[in-house]
Amino acid sequence: MPETWPADLGPVICVVGARPNFMKMAPILRAFAAHVPAIPTLLLHTGQHYDRDMNDRLFEDLRLPQPDINLGIGSGSHAVQTAEVMKHFEPVLEEHKPSCVLVVGDVNSTLACTLVAVKKGIPVVHVEAGLRSYDRAMPEEINRVLTDQIADLLYTTERSAADNLAREGIAAERVRFVGNVMIDSLLSNRQFARAPAATVAAGGGDPTLIAGPQGYGIVTMHRPSNVDDPGVLASLLGVLREISEALPLVFALHPRTRNNIERFGLQHLIDSPSMIMLPPQGYLEMLGLMAGARIVLTDSGGLQEETTALGVPCLTMRENTERPITVDQGTNTMVGRDVAAIRRQTAETLAGHGKSGRVPELWDGHAAERIAADLASWLLARHVIAN
Ligand code: UD1
Hints:
Blueprint: E1 12-16, H1 19-34, E2 41-45, H2 52-61, E3 69-70, H3 78-96, E4 100-104, H4 108-119, E5 124-129, H5 139-150, E6 153-156, H6 160-167, E7 175-177, H7 181-189, H8 196-202, E8 217-220, H9 224-227, H10 230-244, E9 249-252, H11 255-263, H12 267-270, E10 275-278, H13 283-292, E11 295-298, H14 302-310, E12 314-316, H15 325-328, E13 332-334, H16 339-353, H17 367-386
Parallel strand pairs: 1-2, 1-4, 2-3, 4-5, 5-6, 6-7, 8-9, 8-11, 9-10, 11-12, 12-13
Helix pairs in contact: 1-7, 1-17, 3-4, 4-5, 10-16
Residues 18-20, 48-51, 54-55, 75, 107-108, 139-140, 222, 254-256 line the site of uridine-diphosphate-N-acetylglucosamine (UD1).
């Protein structure tokens, strides 16, 4: 391995777009800078998420540098959002001549940038590859399947991912099991997590509500399948309200959910002192809230993994998960949108029968370093062959 990066081998363009990308990219950028030779990077933000709660606070908490390039595309339908990213990303590739494009996760920005780069003959590296819910009604599943099919190097977080990829005809030499970069972020930031009472107070809630011996639970939900249908949203809020009578619940409300509660006239369902409604939270606030909770009820992908790493019981309000290791080895239980199952599993958890689980293989805080070492070798070997 040379001491310095070859002058004629371009930077890695590292793409982020939406909130769940930020905690995955932060450790990657640090590991690339610390690698010998340092791997040059350009941080590109598509602008899919843009406001203070969904974007700026996370950049600050994760100590992410300001993006070198921001495409500023904002919200829109899937087609509009994807097309806008593609249109604006193409000239960036022409200008900067990257050695490769690195994408993370499964948001629209991930697929849009992958499509553009691959068609321009630029290698694409996908971090968190191979996860499958086998539910094609989820936009993220489409993004995952298509990105993995055309990307050149696929870094995976759990061993089941390689089986999923093999089933789709993807050659094993493109796949590398490196562990979970999101858990790198969690472990390196745990010491900085904010106290839950302070977070509740800062969000306008009454911190004494979560201070009692009964503790508190955390709720997040934003999946279109849970929050875009008035009947489904009302029944989920109804059972959560019931649970909150025994256990105060702290909600971190995604803008989609907040808008829909208003649009469907469901405010009365959340109008209860033991349902503490907060705006979307920063990374360190969410970490502190999760670590201190007795239970987490969510439809997020990331929280399923973070609760497994923290050893906190998690009930996932979805019919399927693309992260089966959190169920097989971790603290996660799938409850779907089934009100009776949510009620029953919550009662069992609060009675002390929640899953304790164990931390999966290679979720050890060093995944980004493994990616840096592997990717540097791969890019340098290709460079030697090309010259
Ligand atoms: C996106 C991802 C999803 C991820 C989620 C995390 C896709 C297909 N979905 O969904 O996988 O779990 O991010 O949040 O990429 N909005 C704001 N401020 C913002 C951004 C969005 O208020 O900074 C509102 C807008 O009303 C927007 C809506 O949220 O229309 C949805 O945003 P969008 O990026 O389209 O999808 P998410 O539901 O956030």
